[in-house]
Design goal:
The chain is mostly helical. The chain has 69 helices and 5 strands. The strands form 2 sheets. The protein has a 3-stranded mixed sheet. Strands 4-5 form a two-stranded antiparallel sheet. Helix 12 packs across helix 13. The protein is globular and about 130 Å long. It starts with a helix and ends with a helix. One of its GO terms (biological process) is interstrand cross-link repair.
C-alpha cells in the first residue's frame, strides 16, 4: 500500500511524452488491477483496500509538510501529490472499487486530523462530501474544535500580506455555505437530509463558536485578532444570495441578532439610563455597528424592529447592545423613525398603561431617548417626543388617575439615575395634569429639582433655546444666555417680531430674563451709525416695556462711554502697537535660527499678551466672543474697523516675512512648528477673528490679482495653517448680498476659501492658479511626513478642485497627463523665484505623484457638475483663453474626460443622456444662484463681481452649443431604438420634472418664486435646443409616428402656469414647437399626416398650444408657411391649413358682413375670434359682429360665445396680474359684459363655467384645462367683476346660481386669508402697489354686498343647494350664514303654506 502513491505519480509521467488520451486509461487500469491482485492475496475486498490505501497516502502527504505548526492549507508540492492521488481515486470510484464509508471512517483515525484544504478538495472533486465526512466522525466536540481551529488558521493565512487570498476565500465560501445549509435547515430540506443526523448539530455549533468569538471582541473593545470571526461573518453575508436558501439566511440572521442582543446581560436598567449617552452610533464599537448594518440588509426596518421587540419580550438582554442596535437602526434605516415613533414606542406606551407594566414603560423611554441622541435629523428631540406623548389630555396617562399616578411613579423612580437634561425636559414641559391632581405633578417637580441641586444645576438658569437633545452637559448660564441672544436676534431678523420665547421668559421666567438674558443682550459696544438688527431688536423690546427704562439708559451711556474711551485710546495706542512690533521682530530673529526654535513658544506667548493689550480686551470679553456661534463676513463689502485692520495687517505681514525669511534657510518641512503656533495664537483671540477673516476677504477676493508673489505665498501658507487649526474657528456666516437666492450661508473655514477664490476673468484665473499652487505645494512640503489620510484632512478640498479646473484649462500638457514621480520635483524655494512662471509651477505640481494620489480621493475630485458651474461663471469676453482654445478645452473636458469617466469620480459612465442631464441641471442651478458645491445645502455661487447678474441671466453659448450637439446625437440614436419603451420617454422633460419635484420646500412665497424662475429657465433651455428635440418619433407597425406626449404633459402641468396670459404660451416656445413639429415630420412616411395627427391630438390633450397659435398667428403664419414650403414644396397640411383659414375667417368676419364659418371645436374658433377682436380698434364693428354671432340658433355659436366669455375673463385677470402684456382692464371688462349680455339675451347657461372643476360640463372642461392655476384661483374675482351685467331673472332661471355665487365668494375670502392679492382696477391717483390691500377688501365688500342684496330675490329651491357650503361659511363669514339660514327657513315656511293651500 505504501507504493500506491508512487504508482500514482508514475502513472502521470507518460502523459508528458505523448498524448494524455493514450496514457490515461492503461495507467489507471493498471492501478486497479494491481489493487485487485493485492486484495485477492490479502483476502479483503478491493474497495476496502483502495480506501485504506488512499487514507494512508493522504496521511503521508500531510506529514510531508515542512512546517511544524498545523496549517489548513497545503504547500505546492503537497497540492500536486494530492491532485494526482484524487485523479486515481476518481477512477477507482468510476470502476466501483472504492468504499466511501470506510474511507470517511479511516480519515478520522489518522494521527492528526486532515487539513481543511484536503477535505475541501475531496468535496469539490465529488469524492466525499463535507456532510458525509463530518457525519462519519463519532466525536462531535472534536469535529467542532477541528473546524474552528482550521477556519481560524485559514482566516489568518488570508490576512497575511504576501499570502494567497483567493484560495482561502474559496475555502471559506464553500464551508460557510455548508454551515448555513445544514445549521439552519428549512422544513422543505429536512426530508432529503435525514441521513445526516450529526451534521446540523456540528454546523450550528461552529457558527455559534464564530459568533461567540466576535461578541467577545465587542465587549472588550479590542479589534485586533478577530480576523477569524470577522472574515467568516463577512463571508456569510457575501455568499448568501445565490447559494443559500433565503429562509435559512433569515433564520441565521435572526439567531445572530438575538445572540448579540442577549450576550452577557450584566448591565441593569439603571446603568442603561445613566450610560446610554455613551452608546450612540458614533461611539459604539465599529465592529458591532458594522455587524448590525450587515444584518439589517436582510431585513426591512419593520422586520428588524419586530425581531428587536421579540428579543426584548422573551430574553434577558445586554442593554448596551440593544440601545446601540436602536441607534444603528434609526441612523441607517430612513423609515425607522416613523416606525419607532408611530408604532413601536407608541405600542409600548399603550401596553404599559393598559397593564401598568413598568418594563414596557422603561423600554419605551430608553428607545425614545436613544433615538433622540442621534440628533434631530434622525429622530425628533426627546423634549418634543415627551411633549407629544404626555403634553396633552389625549396622552395615554390621561385616561384615569391611576394612569397618571403610574406615570409619575415611574418618573420618580428614574430620578436618582437621571442626568440634568432629561430632568429639565420633565420640568419645563411637564405632562398634562388636571387641576385637581396638580399635587402629584408638584411632588415630582420638587423631587426633580432636588436631584438637579445635587447635580449643581439650577433650573432657573436654563436657557431659552437650550438644546435638550444634546449629548453634551449643560453650559454655564452666561454662555447659554449669549447663545439665546444670538438665536433671538436671528428669529427677530427673519420675522421682525419679538420671539414668543422671549416674551414668555420676561413673564414666567423673570429671574433668568433679568439676570442673564438682558445683561447678555445689553453688553456695551460702539453703536453703529445706521441701527443694525441688534439695535432694532433692543428698541422693540423697550417699546414693549420688556427692558426697564433705567437699564436701557445705563446701556446707552455705557455705549457712549466705550466710544469715547476708544477715541481716547486710539491717540495713546502707539505704545502697545510699538511693543507688539518689537516682539514680532524678535520672533523673526528666532524663526530664522534653527537652534532657537525651542524659544519660539515662549515668544509667541509674549506676543499674545501684547496683542491683548492692543485689542484692549479682557479675558471675559474674549471668552464671550468664544461662545458666539458664527462670524459674520460680508463678501461684497467687508467692514473692518481701522484699528483692527491695522493690527491684522501687522500680523499678516509678520507671518509672510517670517515665512520668506525661514524658507531662505530651510524648506517648510524643516521649519518646525513656529508658524503653526503663531497662527494658532491668532485663532485663540476670538474677538480678532471677524477682522482677520474680513481682511482675508479683502485681500484674496477683492485685491488678489494685484498682490505680489511674496504676498501670495504668505497668504497661501497662512490659509493652510488656518485650516490646520479649523477646530478653533467658529462657522462663518457669509453675506452674499440680497440679490441672491440664498442671501446668507453658514460655512466652515475650509468652505470659506471657495468663496474667495473665483475664476471669472483673465486676472482672477491667474491669481487663483498661483494661490492654489502655492497653498498645495506648501502643504505637501510642510507636512510631507504625514500619512495620506491626515494629509487629506488638512487640505481644503476647494483648493484642489480649483487646481483641477485651472491647470488643465491653462496647460495643454496637463490634459490626461500621468504623474512623473522623480522627474518633476518642485522645490519650495523655486516657487518664490520670480523667474518661475506660474503656469510652469502649477504643471510641476500637477505631475507630482503625491498630488495625483490626492486626486484619487473622492473629496478632492472635481465632478462634471462642479466643472460646469465653474465654466458657466466665466465671462466669455474676459476669459484668459481665446475662443478657439476655449472650444478645444471644452471638447477635451466633456468628451474626453468627463463623459467616459466613471460616476464614482464625477463622470458620466459614458452615458450621453446622463451628461445632458448634468449640463441642464448645472445651467439651471447656476442661473438660480447655486454653487458648484451642491444645491440648497452648500455655498451659493462664488460671485465674481462685475456683470454677474447679466451673466447669470444668459446661457453660456459654448456650453449650450455642446448641449445642442449631444441632444442631436441622442435624437439620432433614439431613431434606431424607437421601438423600445425607454426611447419613448423624453429625457429633457424627465429632468425638468425631477427638479421641480425634488425641491425641498421652504416658505410658500420663496417656493413660488423659485418655481417660477425655474420654469422660465427651463423654457429658455428648450428654446435654445434644436426645435425637433421637443418631439420624439417611434414606430407603430410600419409607420413612423410623432410623439408629443411628454411635451404636452410638461405644458399642461408646468409651462402653462408661467404664461402671463393664463391660457396661451409665449411666442418663443409656441413657434419653437411648431418649427420642431414640421422638422420632426420629415421622419414620417407621410409628413402631412404626422402633423395632422399631432394637431388633432392637441385639441383634446393640449388645447393651450392651439390657443397660443391663435394668439400669435399673425407672426406665426409666415414662418410656418415658409418652412413648410422649404421642406416639402407641397400644400400645407390639412390642420395647418385649417388654422390659417380660421385666422382669416375671424379677420373677415369682423371687417365685413361675412358669416363666421361653423366647423371644428368652437373654442378654437373662439380663440381666433377673440384675438382678432383685440386687434380691432373700432369697437362698434366688434359689437355688431357679436350681435350677428348671437343671432344664430345653432349650438355652435352658443358654445363659441361661452368660450369667448372665458377668454375675456382670463384677460380680465391678466390685465391686473400681468400688466406688461398690454391688456387693458377696462376694455376687457367692457368686452366681457357685452358677451355676457349677448349670452343673457340667448338664455345660455353660462354659470356652468364657474362650477367646481369636477362639476364643469365636459364641453367646457377643455377651456379650464388650458388655463393656468393662478388664473383659475382668481376666477372668483372675474365673476364678481361681472355683477353689473347680472340680470334679475338669473337667480330664477339658474337654480344653482346662488350656490355658484356663494362658493365663489367663499373662495374669494379664502384667497384673501391666504395672502393672495385680489386684483381690481386702479383707483385714480393710486398705483396698484399702493392700493392692493384696499382693492382686495373692496372686491370682497362688493361681492358680499351683491350676495346679501340678491338673497331675498332667490327662489326657495335655491337655498337647498347651498347646504353643503354652510360649514365653510360659518368659519369665514358667520353673519352671512345667519342670513342664509333665516331666508332658507322663511322660504321653507312659504313652501309649506303653499302646500297647505292645496288642501
Amino acid at each position: 500500500m505504501s507504493s500506491f502513491c508512487f504508482q500514482v505519480e508514475d502513472s502521470g509521467k507518460p502523459a508528458e511524452d505523448s498524448g494524455i488520451e493514450h496514457q490515461k486509461i492503461p495507467s489507471e487500469s493498471f492501478i486497479a488491477s494491481v489493487l485487485q491482485e493485492q486484495a485477492a492475496r490479502l483476502g479483503v475486498p478491493t474497495a476496502i483496500l483502495a480506501a485504506k490505501s488512499a487514507v494512508a497516502n493522504i496521511e503521508q502527504i500531510c506529514e510531508a509538510s515542512p512546517s511544524s505548526s498545523q496549517t489548513p492549507l497545503l504547500n505546492t508540492e503537497q497540492r500536486e501529490k494530492l491532485s494526482r492521488l484524487l485523479l486515481t481515486v476518481k477512477d477507482l470510484l468510476t470502476n466501483n472499487v472504492f468504499c466511501r464509508s470506510l474511507f470517511c471512517q479511516e480519515m478520522w483515525k489518522m494521527k492528526k486530523p486532515p487539513l481543511l484544504e484536503i477535505v475541501w478538495q475531496l468535496h469539490r472533486d465529488s469524492i466525499v462530501g463535507l456532510e458525509e465526512l463530518l457525519e462519519s466522525n463519532p466525536e462531535v466536540p472534536a469535529v467542532v474544535e477541528w473546524l474552528c481551529s482550521g477556519l481560524r488558521g485559514l482566516c489568518g493565512q488570508a490576512e497575511e500580506p504576501l499570502g494567497d487570498v483567493e484560495l482561502p476565500g474559496r475555502l471559506l465560501t464553500d464551508f460557510v455555505i455548508m454551515f448555513l445549509q445544514n445549521g439552519f435547515q428549512q422544513t422543505s430540506e429536512l426530508g432529503r437530509k435525514l441521513e445526516f443526523k450529526k451534521v446540523p448539530q456540528i454546523c450550528h455549533a461552529v457558527l455559534q463558536r464564530m459568533l461567540t468569538c466576535k461578541y467577545s471582541f465587542f465587549s472588550s473593545g479590542v479589534q485586533l485578532g478577530c480576523a477569524y470571526a470577522s472574515r467568516c461573518i463577512a463571508q456569510l453575508l457575501l455568499v448568501y444570495r445565490n447559494a443559500v436558501h433565503p429562509d435559512s439566511l433569515q433564520q441565521f440572521f435572526r439567531h445572530t441578532l438575538t445572540e448579540v442582543l442577549t450576550y452577557s446581560p450584566l448591565l441593569k436598567v439603571s446603568d442603561a439610563i445613566h450610560m446610554q449617552r455613551e452608546w450612540t452610533f458614533t461611539r459604539t464599537c465599529s465592529l458591532l455597528t458594522t455587524l448590525y448594518r450587515k444584518l439589517f440588509v436582510a431585513f426591512s426596518a419593520k422586520e428588524s424592529i419586530r425581531q428587536l421587540q421579540q428579543v426584548l419580550e422573551t430574553h434577558e438582554v445586554n442593554w448596551q447592545h440593544v440601545l446601540s442596535c436602536v441607534s444603528t437602526l434609526v441612523v441607517c434605516q430612513a423609515e425607522a423613525e416613523q416606525l419607532f415613533k408611530g408604532k413601536w414606542v407608541l405600542c409600548l406606551l399603550i401596553k404599559a398603561f393598559e397593564n401598568y407594566d413598568m418594563e414596557s414603560m422603561i423600554t419605551a423611554f430608553l428607545i425614545a431617548r436613544q433615538a433622540a441622541l442621534e440628533g434631530p435629523a434622525v429622530f425628533m428631540p426627546y423634549s418634543e417626543w415627551f411633549k407629544a406623548s404626555f403634553g396633552n389630555a389625549g396622552g395615554p396617562h390621561g385616561s384615569s388617575k391611576k394612569a397618571l399616578v403610574f406615570l409619575f411613579e415611574f418618573l420618580s423612580e428614574l430620578v436618582p439615575f437621571e442626568t440634568a437634561p432629561y430632568l429639565k425636559v420633565h420640568i419645563m414641559y411637564p405632562p398634562f395634569v388636571p387641576t385637581k391632581h396638580r399635587s402629584v405633578l408638584m411632588e415630582y417637580i420638587t423631587l426633580a429639582k432636588t436631584r438637579l441641586a445635587d447635580l449643581k444645576v439650577a433650573i432657573e438658569d436654563m436657557g431659552l433655546y437650550e438644546d435638550l437633545s444634546s449629548t453634551n452637559e449643560s453650559v454655564q448660564p452666561q454662555g447659554q444666555a449669549l447663545r439665546d441672544v444670538e438665536k433671538a436676534i436671528q428669529i427677530f431678523e427673519n420675522t421682525r417680531k419679538i420671539p414668543t420665547s422671549v416674551i414668555e421668559a420676561s413673564i414666567f421666567r423673570r429671574p433668568y430674563y433679568t439676570s442673564w438674558f438682558l445683561p447678555a443682550l445689553l453688553r456695551p459696544r460702539v453703536l453703529p451709525k445706521t441701527p443694525d438688527v441688534r439695535m432694532v431688536f433692543i428698541d422693540s423690546l423697550k417699546r414693549a416695556d420688556k427692558i426697564p427704562a433705567n437699564l436701557y439708559s445705563t446701556y446707552i451711556q455705557a455705549c457712549g462711554a466705550m466710544k469715547e474711551k476708544l477715541l481716547q485710546e486710539s491717540s495713546h495706542s502707539e505704545e502697545p502697537v510699538e511693543q507688539l512690533k518689537a516682539e514680532l521682530a524678535e520672533l523673526r530673529a528666532l524663526i530664522v535660527d534653527q537652534t532657537k526654535y525651542e524659544d519660539v513658544p515662549a515668544q509667541i506667548a509674549v506676543i499674545s499678551d501684547r496683542l491683548s493689550n492692543v485689542l484692549s480686551c479682557s479675558n471675559d470679553e474674549n471668552e464671550a466672543a468664544t461662545l458666539n456661534s458664527q462670524i459674520h463676513v460680508s463678501i461684497f463689502a467687508p467692514d473692518l474697523e481701522p484699528c483692527h485692520q491695522s493690527v491684522v495687517d501687522l500680523l499678516l505681514t509678520s507671518f509672510c516675512q517670517n515665512l520668506i525669511a525661514a524658507s531662505y534657510f530651510n524648506p517648510p518641512d524643516r521649519q518646525g512648528s513656529c508658524l503653526s503656533l503663531f497662527v494658532k495664537m491668532m485663532c485663540g483671540h476670538r474677538n480678532l477673528l471677524p477682522a482677520l477673516l474680513g481682511r482675508l476677504c479683502q485681500l484674496i477676493y477683492h485685491q488678489g490679482p494685484s498682490l505680489s508673489d511674496a504676498h501670495i505665498l504668505g497668504l497661501a501658507a497662512f490659509v493652510i495653517h488656518l485650516s490646520e487649526h479649523r477646530s478653533l474657528i467658529p462657522e462663518v456666516e457669509a453675506d452674499l448680498g440680497v440679490a441672491q437666492a440664498v442671501p446668507e450661508k453658514i460655512l466652515s473655514i475650509t468652505e470659506y476659501w471657495n468663496f474667495l477664490l473665483v475664476c471669472r476673468t483673465e486676472e482672477s484665473f491667474a491669481f487663483c492658479l498661483r494661490f492654489c499652487t502655492a497653498a498645495v505645494s506648501y502643504l505637501l512640503c510642510k507636512f510631507s511626513s504625514l500619512p495620506h489620510d491626515e494629509l487629506c484632512a488638512l487640505l481644503p478640498p476647494s483648493l484642489v478642485k480649483k487646481l483641477q479646473y485651472t491647470v488643465p484649462r491653462l496647460n495643454l500638457e496637463a490634459r490626461g497627463i500621468a504623474c512623473e514621480e522623480g522627474k518633476t520635483e518642485l522645490a519650495w524655494s523655486s516657487l518664490s523665484c520670480p523667474s518661475m512662471h506660474y503656469k510652469r509651477a502649477s504643471l510641476c505640481l500637477w505631475k507630482q505623484a503625491r498630488f495625483q494620489e490626492l486626486l484619487k480621493e473622492k473629496a478632492f475630485q472635481l465632478s462634471f457638475r462642479e466643472w460646469l458651474l465653474l465654466e458657466l461663471g466665466v465671462h466669455p469676453d474676459k476669459d484668459i483663453l481665446p475662443a478657439p482654445e476655449r472650444h478645444d478645452f471644452h471638447y477635451w473636458a466633456i468628451y474626453q474626460w468627463y463623459l467616459p469617466a466613471p460616476s464614482a469620480s464625477g463622470g458620466c459612465d459614458g452615458d450621453l443622456e446622463k451628461a445632458c442631464d448634468v449640463i441642464i441641471g448645472a445651467i439651471l442651478d447656476f442661473s438660480q444662484g447655486y454653487s458648484a458645491w451642491g444645491v440648497g445645502s452648500c455655498p451659493a455661487v462664488d460671485l465674481g463681481g462685475i456683470g454677474y447678474d447679466q451673466l447669470k441671466m444668459s446661457i453660456n453659448p459654448d456650453i449650450l452649443c455642446k448641449l445642442q450637439e449631444m441632444v442631436l446625437e441622442l435624437r439620432c440614436r433614439r431613431k434606431g431604438l424607437s421601438g423600445c419603451l425607454d426611447a419613448r420617454r423624453h429625457f429633457l422633460f424627465r429632468v425638468f420634472q425631477e427638479r421641480l419635484k425634488g425641491r425641498e420646500h421652504g416658505s410658500a412665497l420663496g417656493e413660488q418664486l423659485w418655481r417660477q424662475q425655474e420654469l422660465l429657465l427651463q423654457r429658455r433651455i428648450l428654446v435654445g435646443l434644436p426645435a425637433s428635440a421637443l418631439i420624439l418619433t417611434h414606430r407603430k407597425g410600419k409607420k413612423t409616428m410623432l410623439d408629443c406626449e411628454d411635451f404636452f404633459h410638461f405644458v399642461n402641468s408646468e409651462l402653462k402656469n408661467i404664461c402671463s396670459r393664463g391660457y396661451a404660451l409665449s411666442y418663443d416656445i409656441t413657434a419653437h414647437f411648431f418649427r420642431g413639429l414640421l422638422n420632426a415630420s420629415l421622419d414620417c412616411e407621410e409628413s402631412a399626416e404626422g402633423v395632422n395627427d399631432v394637431l388633432t391630438t392637441c385639441q383634446t390633450k393640449c388645447p393651450i398650444v392651439l390657443f397660443s397659435a391663435a394668439l400669435w398667428w399673425p407672426r406665426l403664419e409666415p414662418v410656418l408657411c415658409s418652412q413648410w414650403q422649404r421642406l416639402f414644396g407641397a400644400p400645407l397640411a390639412a390642420e395647418l391649413a385649417t388654422l390659417r383659414d380660421r385666422g382669416r375667417s375671424a379677420a373677415s368676419f369682423l371687417s365685413s358682413e361675412a358669416v363666421f364659418p361653423i366647423s371644428g371645436p368652437p373654442w378654437i374658433s373662439a380663440a381666433f375670434l377673440h384675438f382678432a377682436v383685440q386687434q380691432q380698434s373700432a369697437r362698434g364693428r366688434v359689437r355688431d359682429a357679436l350681435k350677428r354671432l348671437g343671432t344664430e340658433a345653432e349650438l355652435f355659436p352658443l358654445q363659441l360665445l361661452v368660450s369667448l366669455l372665458f377668454f375675456s375673463l382670463m384677460d380680465l385677470i391678466s390685465a391686473k396680474i400681468a400688466s406688461k402684456e398690454g391688456v387693458d382692464f377696462h376694455k376687457s371688462l367692457e368686452w366681457s359684459l357685452e358677451i355676457l349680455q349677448c349670452l343673457e339675451e340667448r338664455g345660455v347657461s353660462w354659470p356652468l363655467l364657474f362650477h367646481p372643476a369636477e362639476k364643469v360640463p365636459r364641453k367646457y372642461h377643455i377651456l379650464r384645462s388650458a388655463a393656468s392655476d393662478r388664473h383659475l384661483r382668481l376666477l372668483p374675482v372675474a365673476f364678481y367683476s361681472l355683477t353689473p351685467g347680472f340680470c334679475q331673472e338669473l337667480f330664477t332661471r339658474e337654480p344653482a346660481f346662488l350656490c355658484v355665487a356663494l362658493d365663489l365668494y367663499l373662495q374669494l375670502l379664502q384667497l384673501f386669508l391666504e395672502g393672495e392679492d385680489l386684483p381690481q382696477a386702479d383707483k385714480a391717483g393710486q398705483g396698484p402697489g399702493l392700493a392692493e390691500h384696499v382693492d382686495s377688501l373692496e372686491v370682497i365688500a362688493k361681492a358680499r354686498q351683491f350676495l346679501l342684496a340678491a338673497l331675498p330675490r332667490c327662489p326657495p329651491r335655491s337655498f337647498g343647494t347651498v347646504q353643503p357650503l354652510l360649514d365653510r361659511c360659518e368659519k369665514i363669514d358667520p353673519e352671512l350664514k345667519g342670513a342664509l339660514l333665516h331666508l332658507s327657513r322663511a322660504a321653507a315656511a312659504l313652501e309649506l303654506d303653499e302646500e297647505l293651500v292645496l288642501f
